[in-house]
Amino acid sequence: DGGITQSPKYLFRKEGQNVTLSCEQNLNHDAMYWYRQDPGQGLRLIYYSQIVNDFQKGDIAEGYSVSREKKESFPLTVTSAQKNPTAFYLCASTGGRSSYNEQFFGPGTRLTVL
Amino acid sequence: QKEVEQNSGPLSVPEGAIASLNCTYSDRGSQSFFWYRQYSGKSPELIMFIYSNGDKEDGRFTAQLNKASQYVSLLIRDSQPSDSATYLCAVNIVSGTYKYIFGTGTRLKVLA
Question: Which residue from B85, B47, B97, B89 is spatially nearest to B65, judged by alpha carbons?
Fold first, then answer.
């Protein structure tokens, strides 16, 4: 059963803590993405990766970090430098070589700062 | 700044009517266009994509693209209460990278 999984579903962070959000896909997709969604807002790109061991900053990368050591995995770390991290975080992937580059999303992680 | 614009709504339509959702984009280099449905608290679900001028139909959904006017729309025929959701328009800007720009979404309410 192919798809994108994200964990945990809910995450609570104390001030000053770093937390890592997991994203795994078994779709054999090359490109993976992290977005942030705030209430009533669209999706804003944090980081994306087109191939293993390579990634680029999106529009709001400050306070976040990523790694892409395996094709299947693209974890996102929310660092203490991110001043307002409470949001809904969405991981997505696309095959890149498919006809029209449809992008598919995982179920999301809702992060709350206590 | 590349942008994708949508009316935030809510757009209210009676059950059985046609819902028309609109989206404009600023980058003429945009290549593929996507419509996602997002229920409250859930992740976006791909409904349709379109890349050529004209109409593309899939069941009750029709996507329309006019590249000259930089305009893409989604029509939902025979709207059902279960169609009530936020609809996100997204544009694929390739230019050597696979980047996507999303609109802020239009909230649709189908009234029973």
Answer: B89
Chain B residues with CB inside 8 Å of A3's CB?
none
DSSP category for residue B82: G
- Nearest-Cα residue of chain A relative to residue B41: A88
Percent helix, strand, coil in chain A, to 5, is 0, 50, 50
Substitution target from A43, A55, A102 for chain B, most B beta carbons within 10 A: A43
- Using a CB-CB cut-off of 8 Å, the residues of chain A touching B94 are 101
**Per-residue tens of pLDDT for chain B, all 112 residues:** 668 999 988 999 999 999 999 999 998 888 889 999 999 999 999 999 998 999 999 999 999 999 999 999 999 999 999 999 999 999 987 655 678 899 999 999 999 9
